[in-house]
Specification:
about 70 residues; mainly alpha
Length: about 70
């Protein structure tokens, strides 16, 4: 994965995090929308995690997380 692609995924992940935070602050958050956002955020996080695994195929002991 190129650095540009990785940065793009990270940016999308952060944007989803911000959307989730905004939705959670609403007087009546849309639980369906929040579930969709969380699912997409997790998908991006997993994709980022797969891309940073060492070429040897070993699992890293700690993956970076942002929430």
């Amino acid at each position: 994965m190129t650095d540009v692609h990785r940065a793009s995924l990270s940016t999308k992940h952060a944007a989803l995090e911000a959307q989730l935070a905004r939705e959670a602050l609403k007087p009546l958050p849309d639980s369906l929308q929040m579930a969709k956002l969380k699912k997409e955020k997790l998908r991006l996080k997993e994709q980022l995690g797969r891309e940073i695994l060492p070429a040897s195929g070993e699992e890293p002991s700690i993956l970076p997380t942002r929430g």
